[in-house]
Every structure is written in C-alpha cells, then in structure tokens.
Amino acid sequence: MIFEMDDDGSDLAIISGSGDLPLIITNFYPKAIYITFTGSNTVVENKFINCEFEKLGYLFDVLKQNGIRRVVMAGAIARPHFDKNKMDEYTLHLLPKLEAKLGKGDNELLCFIAAEFEQRGYQILGASEIISGLTVPPGFLCGCSYDFVSRDIFKADSVLKSLSLEDISQGVVIENGLVLGIETLQGTNELLNFVAKTASNLRVPGLGGIFVKRPKADQDLRFDMPVVGPQTVELACKAGLRGLVISPGSVMLLEREKCIELAEANNFFILAKDSAV
Predict the structure, then answer these.
(1) Is 187 left (phi over 0), alpha (psi -120 to 50) or beta?
(2) Complete domains list, the chain, with CATH
(3) Those residues with Cβ within 8 angstroms of residue 171's Cβ, 6 or more apart along the chain or in another chain
(4) Of the residues 74, 171, 191, 193, which has the fewest C-beta atoms closer than 10 A?
C-alpha cells in the first residue's frame, strides 16, 4: 500500500528521468510541475516544462516563477553532454566544476547538483519521503531461502562494498560464488540482459543465481535511491536467476504486488536483507 503526503504538490517540482517512478509521483501530486530535459519522451498531463542541460539558469527561473519550494529528482537521467555554445551565463559559470564532477561517480555529480538547488533555497526530497510504502521491511516478500543464498549474498555484498569505495555499482549478479555481471553506467536492465547471454558452460545447470541491489556507501538516497520493479523481476527470471535481494528501507520496489505475482509464477524469491558485510 502506498500513501501520499497530505498536499497536492502545488509547490513541488518533479525533475524527471526515465522509468515509472516519475509518473507514480505525478499521479499522487497532480499540481506538481513536471520537468524533463531535452531527449525525454515521457508524456504527462501535469504542467510540463522541457529544459536543456546547458540552461540551468532558465530552470531556476522557471522554478521561481512557479512558486516552487520543494524538488524531487526521480528516474534515471543519462549523463549530460554539454554544448558550450548553447550554455547560458549561469551554466557557463558552473562549467569548470561540472566538468570535474562528470569525471567521477554518479553520487558525487548528483550531490553537486543538489547543492546548487539547496543554495538557492530549495528543499531536496527523496521519492520515498513524499510517498510512503516504496521501500520494504526486512524479510521474504515471496519465496523462501535456498542453501546457496547466504554464501552468494555474502559474496555479492563483498563485491559491492569494494566497488562503492570508487562510487561504482549498485548491483551484482552472483551464481555459485562466481560474479556473472556488475551493474555499471548502462544500468540494471543491461546487466540482466548481459547475464542472460552468458555461455551455458560458465553456469551451473539448474542452480540459478541471485541479483543483489543496494545503495552505494555514503550515497545520498534523496535523489539516487536504487529502484527495482516488475521489469527487473522479469529480466532476472529470463536470465535464469533464482532470486532478488534488496536492502530494506533503502531500495524502492515499484508495483510490489505485480513483482510478487511475477516472482511466484517463476519460482523466484524476493528478499529484503541488510548487507552481510
């Protein structure tokens, strides 16, 4: 069950990327302003404003003109490629710092952008702060444990802990103690599609593996909380995996009932469990 905050979102801006999360927020906050960047093909009935990465000054002008006080960032946004010739004065002023952040991990870049909003008086909110029920408590949502799960979870958590020190990866696929794939800039779907193509001689017949999805160390969950949903479960099943492990309270599970239905139909488990390392 999902419950929204007791307001209509008239002072809220949804800065939208791809995926279902922005639309879910929009449905709960009908008077929120919906902002996308050039290249997005998302269509909503809310007040819709399209911006360009090179014109952040224009974005802040729009927020001010519409009385916006709160901002939520939702959905995956591709790393921008800035055209210096199109930049407004505000963005051009930020360019040296932006270029430095673009060479680092997502979290550092997003923290820098969020700080710009906060310095101008906007409150940055996470999706899970304005819609409750997006994350899950510890325990099995469906299915049950297998003998190999604890060992593979530990291996996955060890891998993710090491990678998070470099601001890399929210997810990894482990089967029989072996790493089948690591989530990188391409995202979850591409990781699971990659695993599905793994040669059969590199896998254990009938065993299946697990996909573990967690936030990185020190990740700001307001604007970069990991998200999984029905498509994640569907692709994991197609990849021959046996289960999905997520962090309770810090990974969003969209369309929970549909996820559980898909999982149960494929003898697939979903487990919310804290990191083992």
Answers:
(1) left
(2) 3-131 (3.40.50.20), 135-272 (3.40.140.80)
(3) 160, 182, 183, 188, 191, 211, 212, 213, 214, 226
(4) 193
At residue 206, what are phi and psi to the nearest 5 degrees? 80, -5
Distances (CA, A) of 22 to 12, 43, 244: 12, 11, 23
- Can you give the pLDDT of all 277 residues of the chain as single tens digits? 343 445 788 999 999 888 888 888 988 898 899 888 765 555 555 567 888 888 999 999 999 999 999 999 988 777 777 788 899 999 999 888 888 887 777 777 888 888 999 999 999 999 999 998 999 999 999 998 667 689 999 999 999 999 988 888 999 999 999 999 999 988 999 999 999 999 999 998 878 899 999 999 888 898 889 999 999 999 999 999 999 999 999 999 999 999 999 999 999 999 999 998 9
